[in-house]
Amino acid sequence: MGAKMAALFVVSAVLIALFVTTPFLEGARNRAVGLAAPLYHLADLPHNLREWSRTRLIGRDTLIQENEALRSELLVHQRKLQQLAFLAAENTRLRQLLNSADTLNQRVLVADLIGVAPDPNIHKVFINRGTDDGVYIGQPVVDAFGLIGQVVNVSSSNSTVLLISDTSHAIPVQINRNGVRLIAEGRGSVFELGLRHVSSTLDIKEGDLLVSSGLGDIYPAGYPVATVDKIDYDPGKPFAEVVAVPMAQLNRNRHVLLVFAHASKTPTAGAKDAIDNAGSVQ
Amino acid sequence: MMHGFGYLPWLVFTVFVALMLNIYPLPAHYSWFRPEFLALVCIFWSLYCPYRFGVVMAWCVGFLQDIVVGGVWGAHALALAFVAYLCLCAYQRLRSYRLGQQMLWVFVLVGIHEIFVNWVQGFNGYDAPLAMIILPTVITAFCWPLVIGLLKPTRSVWQG
């Protein structure tokens, strides 16, 4: 038995080394996402049943109330959209003046969350879209409030999303107010991001909005990422300690949006019906 | 006394249930308190069915967990195989202990399991604070009577 254990040690060491240092297991990992998905669906069943009963066994009065609330909310958003159309047109004209490409037109695809990585250190979620829907590795994922993360593994009908709060994740951002570029890195908590290399003389204030800068070629520019929460200048240290709070609701989403940032990677015909043209306001 | 594969459906069933409990969605704050059910199940099988449940099987169970939870492959496999090895080395002694003493042992074994898992996950840049290694270990140890209470009575069925 001791010999068996020693052999297993060697096998594990080789497996871990291959996993951590080489992309050799990438294909197997993508397939594993598809294998694990049914288990997550099953684990999610109690919640789905609750959700089902909540929507099916709802009273008529509540439904009417909810409908009215949604209608007034829609009105508010439509009013904002009227201005947006004007702003988008103006933005296009200004971009033409500057001779830069029009980047506003991005398609999105709605996906449902089917599971969350059980280890609290690992900030990954599993969603119900895969290569069949045109999802690709490195695809940005957003919710209604801001950026969530990027796709890291994808099988035929499921994929894994690495959240921006994961300790192995960093995202290039800029301050919306003055355009200063920074890097926001995950710290293993869904409620905070750290900003790297903020010099003490930098113009940054609490409450500043950080948007994705588009550098790094993964995330499209202009999506809200976080707001600056706390700035701690220590004269003894070369950089200030800055903490930002993610805009996206990283721990309470059921639905997320996959953004097709690159025009070349269009989704397949089967997914077309679920795709909403986000740039249609032009 | 050990013939046939009557234990196998029970093993598959307990591993499946433990795996589901390990991935059942919990709010972010509570997931730190999640007990390691799969480790408990592995300890149970290597203590009470040592002729059938070996280190290779424990490794396979751990590998299954690795695939499902999406961490570094080999982390749980190595940890569970090592815990099973320790149990198999001392199962006669451990079985004769009182429940409280067994819980202390389970605490140590699961602690070793957690240290192995965190060490391997550390290669990929994840590190849990020390308190968050000890806390789930304590909670897991307190779940041991539950596992024993539920699984020990089934022995008469599968030990044929």
Which SSEs are present, and which pair or pack?
The complex is a heterodimer of chains A (about 280) and B (about 160).
Chain A: H1 2-21, H2 26-43, H3 45-56, H4 60-97, E1 107-116, E2 124-127, E3 140-142, E4 147-154, E5 159-163, E6 170-175, E7 181-186, E8 193-199, E9 209-212, E10 224-232, E11 239-246, E12 255-260, E13 275-277
Antiparallel strand pairs in A: 1-2, 1-12, 1-13, 2-5, 3-4, 3-12, 4-5, 6-7, 6-9, 7-8, 8-11, 9-10, 10-11
Chain B: H1 7-23, H2 37-48, H3 55-69, H4 75-89, H5 91-96, H6 99-122, H7 131-142, H8 144-151, H9 155-158
Describe the structure.
Chain A is an alpha+beta fold and 282 residues long. Chain A has four helices and 13 strands. Chain A has helices at residues 2-21, 26-43, 45-56, 60-97; strands at residues 107-116, 124-127, 140-142, 147-154, 159-163, 170-175, 181-186, 193-199, 209-212, 224-232, 239-246, 255-260, 275-277. In chain A, the strands form two sheets. A six-stranded antiparallel barrel of chain A has the order 1-2-5-4-3-12. In chain A, strand 3 (140-142) and strand 4 (147-154) form a beta hairpin. Chain A is globular, with a radius of gyration of 22 Å. Chain A starts with a helix and ends in a 5-residue tail after the last strand. The mean pLDDT of chain B is 89. Chain B is an all-alpha fold and 160 residues long. Chain B is 71% helix and 0% strand. Chain B is built from nine helices and no strands. The termini of chain B are close together. Chain A binds chain B through residues 1, 4-5, 8-9, 11-13, 15-16, 19-20, 25, 29, 32-33, 35-36, 39-40, 42-44, 47, 115-122, 124, 126, 153, 160, 167-168, 188, 190, 251, and chain B through 19-20, 22-28, 31-32, 34, 54-56, 59, 67-75, 77-78, 81-82, 85, 88-89, 120-121, 123-128, 132.
Query: What share of the residues of chain A does DSSP label as strand, in percent?
Result: 25-35%
User: What's the pLDDT, averaged over the residues of chain A?
Assistant: 84
Low confidence ranges of chain B? none
The number of strands of chain A is 13
* CA distance, first residue to last residue of chain B: 7 Å
Helix content of chain B: over 70%
**Any idea what the shape of chain B is?**
globular
Distance between the termini of chain A: 70 Å
Structural class of chain B: mainly alpha
Count of helical segments of chain A?
A: 4
Question: Which two chains form the greatest contact, residue counts included?
Answer: A-B, 41 and 41 residues
Tell me the Rg of chain A in angstroms. Answer: 22 Å
Regions with little confidence, pLDDT below 50 for 5+ residues of chain A: 264-282
Structural class call of chain A reads alpha+beta
Give the oligomeric state of the chains in this entry, treating copies of one chain as homo and distinct chains as hetero.
Answer: heterodimer
State the major sheet of chain B.
none
Helical segment count of chain B = 9
The whole-number mean of residue pLDDT values of chain B reads 89
- The number of E-state strands of chain B comes to 0
Strand order of the largest sheet of chain A: 1-2-5-4-3-12
What fraction of residues of chain B sit in β-strands? under 5%
